[in-house]
Every structure is written in structure tokens, then in C-alpha cells.
Amino acid sequence: MPGSPLIDFALTDRHVFVVGVGSGIGRACVRAFAAAGANVSCFDIDGEAATVSADAIGTRGRAFTGDARRLDDVRVALDAADAEFGPPDVAVDVVGETRWGRTIELDDDAWDQSFDLALRQFFNLARVAGRVMSDRRRGSIVAIASVSGLRSAPLHGAYGAAKAGMMSLVRTLAMELGANGVRVNAVAPGAVLTPRVEAMMSEDRRAASAANITLGRLATPDDIARAVVFLASDLASYITGQTLVVDGGATAQFPLSLRA
Length: 260
What we know:
single chain; globular; Rossmann fold; alpha/beta; 7-stranded parallel sheet
């Protein structure tokens, strides 16, 4: 029925705190949450990028600058965001970086950087937001994982291992926080045509990648943002500890089968 809460994605006046809003998936999440009626705190290490994302949604957005790898930076930003929009109802983590190369040839710095950007900062966000949400006995935390954490990750092994760790942490946090009314989930994208990927990949390479995806195209950042909004919304009120794969069917294929 029209207007039924069972089909209502609205997040009117809820406070969503998004980490990693500089471009791509993060910026698409900001737009999607604002379109659903939420107030969005845009947190990024690049202050200018955070401001651009916040300004794009007008009075519903606020920009905050800091390094999510530092617990104090996350705590300070969440406190400042609370002063603007109230305690967070939703916290979303979008940070991650791929370092390419054979895994056994990665140096310690490259390995540590992948884990800092793909796992430590999510741990920090979950620690701060999880306490606030637990005290209020409600809230939703959503992490951007990756299919690279579900399958092998040739030439980006540190990233795959870190994202696998993120999905394990999501399940653990869901078990620990569920009694306090806090849900914790992840979205695992496949290949996404972000501005960075578009700059790195030739048109021919993008076409070759799309040919290996069941739906025949790379995802857009908006495809991923919609899944994030779903998990944050009341439509997913009985979903926790899960990783929603959003990859156009790429991982559903049996590797030796021929496509119909």
C-alpha cells in the first residue's frame, strides 16, 4: 500500500555520519542519504573534498576534517557532528586503498597502509559510534567491504586480507552490539567505475572487465550507495552481521562454465 512503512526508505531527519566522502562511492552515499531525507556529516582527511560533498546537499550537509586512522580524530568529529545534527543514527565507512603488486613482494609499509585504510579506520569508527548507539539502544553501522575479501585477491593481497578482516569484524560487532539494538552490516562491491578507476583503466580494459560480469557492466557508485541506504534503513531492521554482495553477479558464476 502507498505510504506503508514496510516500503519506506525514508530516513527523514536522521543523522548519518559518512567516513570517506571525497569521491566515488562515498560521495554517492552522501547524495543518496540526503535524497532519503537524512542529515549527513561528511568526514574526510581532505577537508576541501569533505566541503564539496557537504555543500552539494545544502543544509543537510556538514563537513568535518580528520584522519579516521586516529581514534581521537574520529571522536572529535563525531562530537562536533552531534552538536550539529544530534547523535548519529547511522555510521558508514567507505575508506580503502588498493596497493598493486605481488603479495610476497609487498614491503611492511604497503601492507600496513592497506590495513590502516581498509580496517583500522573502520575499527575506530565502530568503537566511537558503537558506544554512542549502544547507549541510545539503536543505530546502524555499514562498512564498504569488497569481493576481494571473499575470493582470492591476486596482485592486491593486502587489500583482500584487510577487507576479509573487516567482514569478520562486522559479524563480531553484530553479535556484541545486537542486544543493544545496534545493527552492523557490510556491502561488498565488485568492480565499480569510480573516477579513480575510470582514470586508471582504458576503455578496452573496462569493456573486458564488463564482459566477465553477469549483468554486462561495471557498477556505478550510485549502485553501491543504494545498497548502503537499504541496509541503513528500517527496511533492513532484521538484518545484521551480513555482507551484501553487489557485484552484478560476477561472483555467482562458476569459473569453468560458459555463459548462456
